[in-house]
Amino acid sequence: MDWEIQKDPERLLKTFRFRNFQEALAFAQKVGELAERHNHHPRLTVEWGKVTVEWWTHSAGGITEKDREMARLTDALLEVG
């Protein structure tokens, strides 16, 4: 998995790049729908041409297996289109 591990709090972070704002926003919407289905919600930062996704479990104070799974599922969103 090519996600970065950040500190304070410990979390998985990855920035996805797109051709424009519209594509970035559409991807953020897909991540939001994924989060709702799994009742596990990331921090999303949407900017022109990029979306930064951060997964961690607040109650655990850091990264759990659920966060790793959500990161894998987030990556898979690009494969589905």
From TrEMBL:
CDD domains with a match to the protein in the record: PCD_DCoH_subfamily_a
Top-tier EC class: lyase
Pfam families found in the cross-reference section:
Pterin_4a
Q: Which domain of life is it from?
A: Bacteria
Cite the EC number.
4.2.1.96
Q: Which reaction does it catalyse?
A: (4aS,6R)-4a-hydroxy-L-erythro-5,6,7,8-tetrahydrobiopterin = (6R)-L-erythro-6,7-dihydrobiopterin + H2O
- Gene3D superfamilies, per the entry: Transcriptional coactivator/pterin dehydratase (3.30.1360.20)
Give the record's keywords alphabetically.
Lyase
- Indicate the family of this protein: Belongs to the pterin-4-alpha-carbinolamine dehydratase family.
This chain belongs to the protein called: 4a-hydroxytetrahydrobiopterin dehydratase
